[in-house]
Structure formats: C-alpha cells, structure tokens
Amino acid sequence: MLTTITMFILAYLLGSLVPGYWVGKIFYHKDIRDEGSGNIGTTNSFRVLGFRAGITVLILDLLKGTAAGLLPLLFQSNINPMIIGLGAILGHTYSFWIGFKGGKAVATSAGVLLAYNPPFFLMVSAVFIIALLISSMVSLSSMIGFGFATVVSFYFHDWILTLVAIVLTIFVFYRHRANLSRIKNGTESLVSIGWYYHHKKNAQK
Q1: How far apart are the first and last CA of the chain?
Q2: pTM of the predicted model, to two decimals?
Q3: 203 pLDDT band (50/70/90 cuts)?
C-alpha cells in the first residue's frame, strides 16, 4: 500500500509539471494563461507561442503521462499502470505550480495509454488524427478519440483499461463542455496544417 501511495504521489508531481506555462514564461516572456484560450496545453501553446513551442509542449505533456505509467515497472510493483497514471492526469488538471489549475489532460492521458498499451495508443492516436484532418477541431477530435478508446477497450477484455477509458472519456467531455457549446454554435476555433505553418512563420519573426 505504501508503495502504491508513493507511486501515485510521484505520478501527481510528474503531471503537475507545466511545460506550456514554463516555456511561455522563460523563452517567450508570455503567460500562456492570459492569451488565446487561457489553457496551458498543446493547442494553446501552438496558438500563442508558435509551432516549435507547441511541439515541445505536446511531447513533454505526453512524456509526463508515459513516465507516470512506467512507475510500477520502476518500483517492480504489480499495480496496474493505468491506476498510477491517473495521478499524472490529476496533476496536469490541478497543478500545484499554478494554484491547482491546469489543462484538459488530453496529451497526458494519451501518454499513460502509451505506457500501458502502445498498440492501443496508436489506434486511438490514428482516430484522433483522422478526426482532426476532417473536422479541423482539436476539441472535437479529442472527444472522438477518447470515445473511440472506450468502445475499443471492450475488445481488449481488460476491465481496468475499460473502466479507466470510461472515466477519462467522461472527464475529457466534461473539461470540453465549453467547447461543446462553441461547436454547437459554430464558433469553435479551427486548426489546419496551414494554420500551424502560419503560426510557425509568425513565431520566427
């Protein structure tokens, strides 16, 4: 029990790291919370800081979840990595570094899936990318990706994976409730390959 609690706390601390906020403050002298959507995650990093920063934040947020999911391996524990990974997701969403606020934990959740089941991660990522190419909406693509994860998880006959997938899907939909309203009203922000390159070009000026 003590080992499990220790791993969960470490996972929370990993998840609490805020690369989007730090990259903006250190390298661009901007508080990402004051611009764009105000979110500290990947999409707003692209929007406010540019292409290079967005890619960096995406990778770091993903790795937070992956590192947390690998803690049971490091501690030689039999506890399911998905359970420990929830600590990182909680940390990203309620980071003590920024007053127990945070992002929507999409990339961090994906990182936990990567640590636990790489093929499953690749399937969900493929659906997310396809949805993004079709809709040009990161929010909608995230919800579709996690909804797909829940459905497909039943075919893996892994009740913990299914349970966590359901919890994460509900959580992602809840965190995107404002986006759902904008999607319904036709005012949600759109992204595209051209959008990213436009911001990359502006960031380099």
Answers
A1: 53
A2: 0.85
A3: very low
